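Before a colleague's protein record goes any further, I have to sign it off. Alongside the sequence sits a line of tokens, each denoting a local backbone shape. I want your independent view on whether this chain really folds as the tokens say. Where you disagree with what is written, explain briefly why. This is what I was given:
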Amino acid sequence: MEQYNNPAHPAAGYQAKVASEGRDTRYYDDNQWIGIAAIDVYQRTKRKGYLELAEKTYRLMMTGFDTVSGGFIGARGI
């Protein structure tokens, strides 16, 4: 999975194609599913790496938080 990691600003996250092919869009919904799965695996195994993955995903999600329209995660990717 790390071959899809894109560490670019504003926060690291997983992009739509492998990083070796260049930078691509990081979609919030795709990354949210990764975060949900990481939390599930962490709860089952207590392996800290999965909790760290969920936290990484959360940091990316919060870069899309929009307070102007009442508070939501933006619909488009970054």
User: Anything to note?
Assistant: The longest strand covers residues 5-6.
